[in-house]
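Incident review: delayed structure delivery

Summary: a single-chain prediction request sat in the queue longer than the usual turnaround. Root cause was a stuck worker, restarted by the on-call engineer. No data loss occurred. The affected request and its eventual output are reproduced below so the record is complete for anyone auditing the incident later.

Affected input:
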Amino acid sequence: MSDLSGEIIDNRYQLIRQIATGGMASIYEAVDTRLDRKVAVKIMHPHLAQDDAFVSRFIREAKAAAALSHPNIVAVQDQGWNQNGVPAVFLVMELIEGHTLREYLNERGRFEIKDAINYLTPILSALAAAHALGIVHRDMKPENILVSKEGRIKIADFGLARGELIGSTMTAESSVILGSVSYLSPEQVQRGIADARSDVYAVGIVAFEMLTGEKPFIGDSPIQIAYMHVNQEIPSLRSKRNEIPEALDALIGRATDRDPDKRPRNAGEFLAALETISIDLDPKKNQLKLDLDLPVEPIREKPRGKVKKIVEEVVEKTIEVIEDSKSLKRSEEKKHKSSKRVRRNRKVAIVLAIALGIGAWYTLIGPGSRIVVPSTVGGSYDDAVAAFNPLGITSVKVEKRFDEEIAKGTIIESIPPGGGRIDNGGSVTLIISKGPERYLIPVLKGLTPEAAKSAIGKLPLTVRNVSEAFNSEVPQGFVISSSPEAGLQVKRDSVVDLVVSKGIETVAVGSYVGKSGDQALNELTSSGFNVESTYAFDEKILAGAVISQNPKGDGSIPKGAKISLVVSKGSQYVFIPNVFSIDEAKAIKALKDLELKVIVKKLGSKKLKKVTNISPKVGSKVKRGSTVTITVG
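Output delivered after worker restart:
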């Protein structure tokens, strides 16, 4: 195909320069003159554009790819057939400025394990989105994985009409698929069919190359490499690089299993398994647990010495007053100047002094004395008792209360509070935390909704929503799960949602007999069925079409059930081709390609021998596996 740089496609896209070319098309950097933005325009090669069936499928799958919206998928923006100027079937995509994963691998070789996982994660995420819509890529390889300048991963070329090309021949088009054959699944090589599991296989091979720096199989020709994929197991990653984690080795081994039924069913399953391994390789750090230990230093007043001193002072003053009164009386008697009023005042003073002494004794050291309660908030019950005992506080009452902030067993408050006073023999009440108020969600699975509501009703909780869902394990009408789930602790007045089983989900399945086995496999797998395909000769059903299915169609089948398909390999009979005058080697190959056994009879001594006779004769109808004798000389 000649370089079309400078051409305008569809009166809109100005082709700037050719940036890539492949077996099906060439890609140009272009400018969308209508929106004034850079785009990539993919133009199909002219010889393919002459094939109406190929073009129809190209356009159909381009429309399907345009429906994909994912940050890691190259967006398809337009498609059409250029009617003005150079005739061309074209596809317009977003332009990714950067490089391909192939270029990256060629430049740096193998990846570090964590880097490889970081690349594989968006790749699988994009494929998972496609598989969820029933879209299969069919040609996953490093050349179709782009890395933008910003480091964003983008997958290009979703499902653009490759299936028949791969399934038809690997000789005439070997140059076209040379870059792809290293990533083709065995079923693509053998039968030309692809489903989500074929993409899983290809990504597994890409992962192998990223982690080891080499492809699993190297050969002199595409046919040789394809043969290896069909007949040999992919080498273990750890045999190439022993620091690869066993779990990652096992996952890539499962993804590249020759049997598609043993692989993850789609990219979503592959991604989930990879994320689990990624977390194991880089686990979150445990949160630091800080236990606050608040030591309590109780207030312990010791008033005894001070009280004794005060009492002694009061008594001394009383004695002084009495002594003074006696002296005064003697003096007055001597002087004979006493009077009734003076004598009455003396008596009052004596009585007051005695009363003061008795009051001080009663208040400070007598029955009227009171004990100062030490502060115990923040401590434990044992801490409080240790503080109370020296003060003679022996009556301690305990009340417990929930608290969202104070740890279980810690004193919230006391009655009376620290610094308050109690009588001798009085009691102190401690309010101790029971911790946050939480209630355990009981096991509700398997109960009827009424029984589940009753169980929740026994707690200060409320059932809010009751929804329904299909479930293959829990019978219809019984609880599948709760949210929050059983075993979790929740606050008072929390709400609980219940999911009740609708029983096994069934899906209406039609008959695929006589239809494409590829179509049947993709549609049934996308509907959630476990599809098992076997192959058999059939004289009436064309190769690749379904001979029979079990269970039969035109009914409803439980989702996830196994459906067996028998796909036709075509007629078991072949016609003996005309190989007269053909070189011995070419004749043998032509006959073996028809699954015939060949016996060679040699005549003469020529080095280059040609076929002179064949038995059975040319045009004979024989079963595959029959023996054919050729004479060469």
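Verification: Confidence is low (pLDDT under 50) at residues 161-179, 285-329, 334-339.
Action items: add queue-age alerting; document worker restart procedure.
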